[in-house]
Specification:
Elements lengths: L11 E10 L4 H16 L4 E8 L4 E8 L2 H8 L4 H12 E11 L11
Antiparallel strand pairs: 1-3, 1-4, 2-3
InterPro entries: ABM_dom, Dimeric_a/b-barrel, Jasmonate_Hydroxylase-like
Keywords: Monooxygenase, Oxidoreductase
GO molecular function: monooxygenase activity
C-alpha cells in the first residue's frame, strides 16, 4: 500500500508538477523517473515526493523542499536539465508547475506518541 509522505514542520515548499503524458515509451520514461527520484533524494533540502498518474495520462507529482534555493538548485541541476528537455520533446503533451509555500501540515490518523 502506498503512503503519502509525512508532514514536515512548516514552512517548507511544495512543487506541484501536473502533466499529460503520451501513451508510449513507458520503459524509458520509467527509467528516467527512477533515476531522477534517486538523484532528487540526494539533494540538500529535498523532503519527499508524492506522485500519481491516471490511466488517461494525467499525472500529478508533488515534491517537497525545505526552501526556494533547494528548488532552484534542483531545477538547474546538470543531470536534471537534459531529462527536462527529453520530457518536453518525447513524453509530455503538456505540463504545468506550481510552487507553493506550505504553512500548515498534518495527517490522519495522527502518529502515535
Amino acid at each position: 500500500m502506498a503512503t503519502p509522505v509525512p508532514p514536515y514542520e512548516p514552512p517548507y515548499y511544495a512543487v506541484i508538477f501536473t502533466s499529460v503524458r503520451h501513451d508510449d515509451d513507458h520503459e524509458a520514461y520509467a527509467a528516467a523517473a527512477k533515476r531522477m527520484l534517486a538523484l532528487a533524494t540526494e539533494q540538500p533540502g529535498f523532503l519527499g515526493v508524492d506522485s500519481a498518474r491516471g490511466a488517461d495520462g494525467l499525472g500529478i507529482t508533488v515534491s517537497y523542499w525545505r526552501d526556494r534555493a533547494s528548488i532552484e538548485a534542483w531545477r538547474t541541476h546538470a543531470a536534471h536539465l537534459p531529462i527536462q528537455e527529453t520530457g518536453r520533446r518525447r513524453w509530455y503533451d503538456m505540463f504545468s508547475v506550481h510552487i507553493a509555500q506550505v504553512e500548515r501540515s498534518y495527517r490522519y490518523p495522527p502518529p502515535a506518541p
